[in-house]
Design brief:
By secondary structure, the chain is mainly beta. 6% of the residues lie in helices and 48% in strands. The protein has a 22-stranded antiparallel barrel. The two termini are 55 Å apart.
Length: 867
């Protein structure tokens, strides 16, 4: 269904029933609670200054501490159900960790964690940009609020906010000594404990110390496969990996975090804030085998091979990797030799990595020794139960994430203020997962990442002309460096990727925005940001099995490759003929040396606001955002003498909206309609077996969102939202459209196809009722229903990975004692036990489709306290 902007605006104007407001918040400070049954004001800093969210001409969903706790939202990803046109998933395909965030806002985002791919939604912690999706699914411990800004935010927030921005604001220290926290128990032996202590140190100086501990068993149980042939499969520890570790259950948590903040302000022009945080996250994703594709024809060991090779250029008479493995274990030595597959079925790895060599499995199922028989690869490992798997390989994640920042606020005069934000952050991460969900080593992945970043931002904020003019001018510097080491083993070692990569980024920016209230009823906004960025990248990807040498007759059955031997198809050496670029390393597929790219961008914004009354604002804006480019890293084959790179992608958005607070603050109703021109989308293009990124598509995104909060009577509030998006490709390059496998598996990336992770419809409604009882205490009843229509989980639109329409129901009941010193809450999440795929991936060459299911129905009981 296609809708125009005018249609969306008519829908917005015609809406009269209470749905959602742009904020679903009651203030978290004790002195700000509503006493008259009306809707409380919430202050946000979306424009770098404190403002009532109803006065900000941006579509914002804001959530405070009380709302987050009552609705059982403990991490960023859990906001997904209650924010319209927002999709936030805990984990990306094959990341193995729910601490990795897959964030999409209005159809734009990123579903990866690699260094070469930057996020499309910017995440900020107390104004500090978090550059990696690893660790971005932040635990929402002791926060004041979370702001979700929709649409390009390039002017004030910068690069990689092309889809929007998520800003986490932690709580400042209180002026009085206070201790508060909660302890939660629940399903799967859950035990959470959080606490915060406000410590007044001296006049004008206070500190806050917060901590959190989370422990929970996994919900996916590994069960043994009932066949003794599993004992003949090599252990996953026989292959190179970032580490080794597994457990009988997947999907559990073992995390802890610590945060401290100190603030000094004596009422004068200067205030200082210093904060630091540290977290240790050992949570794992629950991965399952979803489907297999071992019968797909391929280029290996065909009957129409090029002379002297095992390569079939037609891809019709040979096998894919899965089929090749089945052929190797089930064919005789003579049959294997007849198809040029003796080396392919022989010893894995090469003479350069003798410690990784695995004996040949050629003909083991048809020789005279039944004791060495191997299990084949097929659908026998599929289990319908989403909470069971036959996996035996890696399942671990260990993330250390820490940082500190210093903020200086100085009032130069009554009308001008200077703000400085200085920050340093660092993360260390190792993870591994058994993506094939079987006792075989068909898709084993692991990663090790080290990253650090430094940022410095300076803002000059001012007002003039009797406060009719507000402005912000600023400068920004960002430096990032680190490395990511990928390890991938599939098809029992037929391909063994070892990919060290190193990246450095330096970013400089100058920005400014002016908001001018020309008259009581008219305001205008003009802003822009200029960015200059330099990137350096060195890739070291290598394929330790030397598969191409074995495929083209440059190896023997013992695994010994002959790089300097004659290439059967041309009078050159094998290494030259196959295009391997490093004379000193015959199995390296990535071009040696440091690669450099420079980007520059100007992202402007223009807006107009109309104020027909103090309670209503109508606004329109045009804004631009961009996402930086980079290089492809996950190569399995050489791709020439130049590292494959890609450039920026950009988005231009027109947005029209209205914000209103009506009926003496009994109803807050906000609406926005938008259209986005999304250009040069970074899409995967398959070059041989290498997933290569290129600017291979454009898209049109149109939609609207309605949010409301109603307080029809004392004690009762009703939050609700409706979001609609029509996001589809308007251009796809021929190479990108060819990505994927046969049409029986994937619908493909084509013009008119929907963008991934973008449901057409999202709806939420949440009534909350609080009533006093006889002893002066309170009972709070809360229900939460959300609906999202079906969505594609990947760009290639793989059928088995498609997420069905989802309906989630959560509910809780809480008792608050008369003195408000403690609260007891009992609740449940996903009460209807609706199970759906939150993430997934496909590797048709390896005959494997895998995915991660949502958490099942769970109960919890929480005791909160403060004194």
């Amino acid at each position: 269904m296609r809708i125009g902007l005018a249609t969306a605006l008519l829908a917005s104007a015609a809406w009269t029933a209470p749905v959602w407001a742009q904020t679903t918040e009651q203030p978290t400070q004790p002195d700000a609670r509503q006493q008259d049954g009306g809707i409380a004001e919430i202050v946000v800093t979306a424009q770098k200054r404190a403002e009532n969210v109803q006065d900000v001409p941006i579509a914002i969903s804001a959530f405070g501490a009380d709302t987050l706790q009552e609705r059982a939202v403990g991490s960023i990803s859990q906001l997904s159900a209650i924010a319209p046109n927002v999709n936030l998933d805990a984990g990306t395909p094959f990341s193995g960790s729910p601490a990795v965030l897959s964030a999409y806002i209005r159809g734009i985002g990123s579903d990866d964690f690699a260094f070469n791919i930057d996020p499309g939604v910017g995440l900020y912690l107390d104004g500090v940009y978090l550059a990696r999706t690893v660790g971005a699914n932040q635990d929402l411990m002791d926060v004041a609020r979370v702001e979700v800004l929709k649409g390009p935010q390039g002017t004030l927030f910068g690069r990689n906010t092309i889809g929007g921005a998520i800003s986490i604001v932690t709580r400042d220290p209180g002026k009085a000594f206070r201790v508060q926290g909660d302890v939660t128990t629940g399903s799967y032996k859950r035990l959470n404990a959080r606490g915060a202590i406000d410590i007044p140190i001296a006049e004008g100086l206070g500190a806050i110390l917060s901590f959190g501990v989370q422990s929970r068993d996994g919900f996916l149980k590994r069960i043994p496969y009932p066949d003794q042939r599993v004992n003949n499969t090599p252990s996953y520890t026989a292959f190179a990996a970032a580490g080794y570790g597994n457990a009988p259950r997947e999907g559990g948590n073992d995390n802890w975090n610590l945060r401290g903040k100190a603030k000094w302000s004596n009422g004068g022009p200067l205030s200082l804030t210093i904060s630091g945080d540290y977290s240790r996250d050992k949570g794992t994703s629950a991965n399952k085998l979803i489907a297999t594709a071992e019968a797909v024809p391929g280029n290996f060991a065909g009957t129409s091979n090029l002379p002297g090779t095992g390569f079939d250029p037609t891809g019709t008479t040979g096998f894919n990797f899965a089929g090749l493995y089945n052929f190797c274990i089930g064919a005789t030595q003579a049959q294997i030799a007849a198809r040029g597959a003796s080396a392919l079925c022989g010893t894995s790895a090469t003479q350069f990595t003798p410690h990784l060599q695995i004996p040949s499995y050629a003909g083991v199922n048809v020789d005279a020794n039944p004791l060495n028989n191997r299990l084949p690869w097929d659908s026998r490992y599929l289990i319908a139960d989403p909470d069971k798997s036959y996996a035996t390989g890696n399942a671990f994640s260990d993330l250390k994430n820490w940082g500190f920042s210093g903020v200086i606020d100085y009032d130069l005069s009554d009308a001008i203020a200077l703000k400085s934000i200085t920050a340093y952050r660092q993360l260390e991460w190792a993870a591994g997962l058994d993506a094939d969900g079987s006792p075989l080593n068909f898709l084993q992945l692991s990663f090790r990442m080290h990253q650090w970043q430094f940022s410095q931002e300076v803002q000059l904020l001012g007002k003039a002309l009797d406060n009719k003019l507000n402005y912000v001018l600023g400068g920004y510097y960002f430096k990032e460096a680190g490395n990511l080491h990928d390890y991938v083993t599939f098809a029992e070692g037929q391909v063994q990727l070892d990919g060290p990569n190193r990246l450095e980024t330096a970013n400089y920016a100058a920005f400014g925005q002016i908001d001018y209230r020309a008259t009581d009823w008219l305001g205008v906004t003009i802003g822009g940001r200029y960015t200059k960025e330099k990137k350096r990248f060195e890739g070291g990807q290598q394929e330790l099995n030397g598969f191409n040498y074995k495929l083209f007759g440059c190896s023997d059955a013992n695994g010994n490759i002959t790089p300097n031997g004659p290439y059967p198809l041309a009078p050159v050496s094998c290494q030259t003929g196959l295009g391997y670029p490093d004379p000193s390393n015959p199995v390296r597929v990535y071009v040696p040396g440091m690669n450099r790219k420079t980007f520059s961008d100007f992202s402007p914004k223009f807006g107009v606001q109309l104020h027909p009354s103090d309670a209503i604002m109508v606004y329109g804006s045009w804004s631009r955002g961009y996402k930086t480019g980079g290089w492809t890293t996950r190569l399995t084959n050489p791709q020439g003498n130049v590292a494959p790179d890609f450039n920026e992608e950009s988005a231009k958005t027109i947005e029209l909206g209205v914000k209103s607070t009506l009926f003496e603050r009994k109803l807050q109703l906000n609406a926005a309609a938008f259209t986005t021109d999304y250009r040069d989308i970074q899409l995967n293009i398959q070059v041989g077996t290498s997933p290569t990124i290129a600017n291979a598509g454009d898209a049109r995104i149109r939609g609207f969102e309605l949010e409301a909060i109603a307080a029809p009577m004392r004690g009762l509030t009703i939050n609700g939202s409706v979001g609609y998006i029509d996001a589809y490709y308007t251009r796809v390059s021929a190479a990108a459209a060819a990505v994927g496998g046969p049409s029986s598996f994937q619908a493909g990336t084509v013009v008119g196809a929907a963008l991934p992770k973008t449901p057409n419809w999202k709806t939420n409604i949440s009534p909350r009722y609080e009533t006093r009882i006889g002893n002066g205490g309170s009972v709070i009843l809360l229900a939460d229903w959300s609906h999202a229509s079906s969505v594609w989980n990947d760009t290639q639109r793989t059928f088995v990975l498609r997420r069905k329409a989802v309906d989630l129901v959560n509910a809780s009941i809480a008792y608050q004692e008369p003195g408000d010193h403690w609260t007891l809450t009992v609740g449940g999440t996903n009460l209807t036990d609706n199970r759906y795929l939150t993430s997934g991936g496909s590797n048709i060459a390896a005959g494997t489709f895998f995915g991660t299911y949502s958490r099942p129905r769970e109960w919890y009981a929480r005791l909160g306290f403060k004194f």
